[in-house]
Design a protein that fits this description.
The structure holds two protein chains of two kinds. By secondary structure, chain A is mostly helical. Chain A is built from 14 helices and two strands; from the N terminus they run H-E-E-H-H-H-H-H-H-H-H-H-H-H-H-H. Helices cover about 40% and strands about 15% of the residues of chain B. Chain B contains 16 helices and ten strands. In chain B, helix 7 crosses helix 8, helix 7 crosses helix 16 and helix 8 runs parallel beside helix 16. The chains are: A mainly alpha, B alpha/beta.
């Protein structure tokens, strides 16, 4: 096969447009924000790039580190739940008949066609005190409460609606709902390529279903699992709309704090420093993962 | 099964819908500006300028036919784009005016924009309808003599509540800031400045007399109160109240007045400690492409009949005395829209304080992280 290196002119022609785009609209603005993070406010609209580290020092105060840690926990919980729920879903799609596969994949991707905000509002309608979830459970409670007497228990009292909205549960629920497709799709891609005869061999040789799943399927699908974890965790860490709309008084995440610096507080340098701390943390995590992967490769 | 009913509302407050639809707002703004650069290219208006005008306004904050009527009267077509918060407006203008002729900032942002040289002085000779404005709105602290801004509406923060779920009238900030009586049924506005300033007002300070020590005090009180608070809302407090999610809520009088039309179990009270006044104003940003049209448009909005039609739609208190005189009693003597004078006397305009704003935000971050 001919190497692209023999067609430098063609390569340059194709690469120029996306490279220009990347530099002009991604790296350049990001670089400006990076410079802001070393600046100080001069009056209301001017930022003096003074090279100070004061913004980073402030961002590393326990208050902000605590919020960052909380965001990591929320994003981590979201990722784990997505993995636990998404894995069987991906597996089910892989083993579905060819007729059903495209429809099931469509079902996973369908929510993407609706704006995130609309989906979040829909979730609010479901979870609120007088929302669909509470109405349904309340209705079941009223209709079938008498069944309790059949097993010798006293009938339950009046239904007390559950507080499902405006707390940390709602935030994680909302994040899982939004990010599940990000987990299912890479898992599906990895599992679909898997040689199914290996699973049959494992079962034939006497391993149980669970053992086959953990010892055969999971290691083979590891690249898909890792990329699924990364592309679920990273956006969940920067989630802003979901904690804002579904969260309670203490559900702020780091992105909400960053947003307030850029808008209400009018403190762009500090907001920039907070954003970059988040970015450094993400880079380190991805670099760590890449290093691990290389070590694993070297071992083989 | 009792039908699933999702409470819907006809009118949405200006500060609620678009705030949520921030993304859409950006789209509308860009679309609006892209469109206005080509529209009515050749035609000239009586002002000697190209017959178009770019108006940057809050959502649901203009009469239904006002813009069309203005076009019929003057030949100038208005392209309206929408913003959701003052911060958004400020952020957009801070890097240079992208082409707006008339904007609608609130009082504290008028101060901020004068200070940062983002708006231009108005030529009062081109705005004869200034005579319609209630004289008490002319010499205001944030813009003495109205050199830079014309008042469009005013509003005040207070407590919206569900009558059947509270004992008596919750006529004090205490019920929101310093009491467990309505625990789990309270929602506060998610605006650091407003929450801290009104907390200070409850403790007996002026909203303009805050010091870092008072902010600390308010912060400690709010951290104590936090377990009783259900949520900090994004200025959709009226929806939370209407849907029964909470029973006492910190919200603007106009927003509560809009839902009282739909649910007569809801009422609004201005707390006895006093509150904070806001006013939205019409200004011309620096570098406006059509300044003469802008003056003509501001003058038109201050006309009595036009002002009446706007007030009928948006139901916020109007500072336009001539327009108010034309309104029915249900508006004029509505104690929610126009609270009694003795209560209003205890309310103040909060001025913008560059030094304190970051402290408000940090205190609020600490309250929420606690």
């Amino acid at each position: 096969m001919e190497s692209w290196k023999n067609h430098k002119a063609l390569f340059a022609a194709i690469a120029t447009a996306p490279l220009t785009w990347l530099i002009l609209f991604f790296l350049l603005p990001l670089g400006i924000v990076w410079l802001y993070s070393f600046g100080t406010n001069q009056g209301l609209t001017q930022i003096d790039i003074s090279g100070t580290f004061a913004n980073y020092a402030r961002a590393l105060e326990p208050l902000y580190l605590g919020i960052l840690w909380k965001s990591v926990l929320v994003a981590g919980a979201t990722t784990i739940i997505c993995l636990v729920v998404g894995f069987p879903v991906a597996l089910a799609i892989v083993f579905a008949s060819d007729k059903w596969k495209p429809w099931l994949l469509l079902g996973i991707m369908l929510p993407f066609w609706t704006n995130l905000l609309i989906r979040t509002y829909a979730l609010m309608a479901v979870l609120r005190t007088e929302g669909y979830a509470n109405q349904t459970i309340g209705w079941l409670h009223d209709k079938f409460g008498w069944l309790m007497t059949l097993v010798g228990l006293p009938p339950p009292g009046a239904y007390e609606p559950m507080h499902l909205l405006y707390n940390n549960f709602a935030v994680i629920f909302g994040l899982v709902y939004v990010h599940l497709p990000f987990m299912v799709l890479p898992l599906y891609a990895a599992l679909d390529k898997l040689d199914k005869s290996l699973i049959e061999a494992s079962l034939d040789l006497g391993a149980g279903h669970l053992r086959t799943l953990l010892m055969i399927v999971a290691p083979l699908a590891a690249p898909g699992i890792i990329s699924g974890i990364i592309i679920t965790f990273v956006p969940a860490l920067g989630a802003y709309l979901t904690p804002d709309l579904l969260g309670g008084p203490d559900s702020q995440m780091i992105a909400n704090v960053i947003e307030r610096q850029f808008k209400r507080a009018n403190d762009w340098p500090f907001g920039a420093a907070l954003s970059f701390i988040l970015m450094y943390a993400t880079f380190i995590a991805i670099a760590f993962q890449a290093m691990k992967a290389r070590q694993a490769e070297a071992r083989q | 099964m009792n039908g699933f009913e999702f409470p819907t509302r006809k009118g949405m407050g200006r500060r609620s819908l678009l705030q949520a639809l921030g993304v859409a707002a950006v789209g509308i703004s860009f679309g609006g500006l892209a469109a206005c650069s080509k529209s009515d290219g050749g035609k000239m208006a009586a002002t000697g300028e190209e017959a178009s005008l770019n108006f940057y306004n809050w959502d649901t904050y203009i009469g239904e036919t006002t813009l069309d009527d203005f076009k019929d009267a003057s030949g100038i077509s208005v392209n309206m784009s929408l913003f959701a918060t003052n911060d958004e407006l400020f952020a957009k203008l801070r890097a240079g005016n992208p082409g707006f002729d008339v904007i609608v900032p609130s009082n504290d942002f008028v101060e901020r924009m004068i200070e940062s040289d983002l708006i231009v002085p108005l030529d009062h000779s081109l705005i004869p309808n200034m005579k319609n404005i209630d004289p008490t709105f002319i010499d205001v602290a944030y813009d003495p003599g109205r050199k830079f801004s014309m008042p469009y509406t005013w509003l005040t923060l207070g407590i919206g509540y569900r009558k059947s779920k509270v004992k008596g009238v919750p006529d004090s900030w205490k019920y929101l800031f310093d009491s467990a009586e309505y625990t789990g049924r309270i929602a506060l506005l998610s605006e650091a400045g407003d929450v801290i300033r009104l907390g200070a007002k409850y403790l007996g300070h002026s909203v303009n007399g805050l010091t870092p020590e008072i902010i600390k005090q308010v912060e400690a009180m709010m951290i104590r109160q936090k377990p009783n608070i259900k949520t900090f809302h994004e200025d959709n407090g009226q929806d939370l109240l209407l849907s029964g999610e909470v029973d006492v809520v910190m919200e603007y009088n106009g927003d509560i007045a809009q839902i009282m039309v739909e649910d007569d179990d809801i009422d609004f009270v201005l707390p006895k400690e006093g509150s904070q006044l806001n006013s939205d104003t019409l200004c011309i940003p620096k570098g406006a492409p059509h300044p003469k049209n802008a003056h003509s448009f501001i003058n038109y909005l201050l006309d009595a009949e036009v002002g009446k039609k706007i007030a009928e739609t948006i139901l916020f208190p109007t500072p336009n005395a001539a327009a108010k005189a034309l309104m029915p009693d249900s508006y004029k003597s509505n104690p929610v829209i126009f609270p009694p004078a003795d209560q209003l006397a205890k309310c103040e305009y909060a001025s913008y304080n560059e030094k304190l704003q970051p402290l408000y935000e940090e205190a609020f971050t600490r309250i929420r992280a606690a």
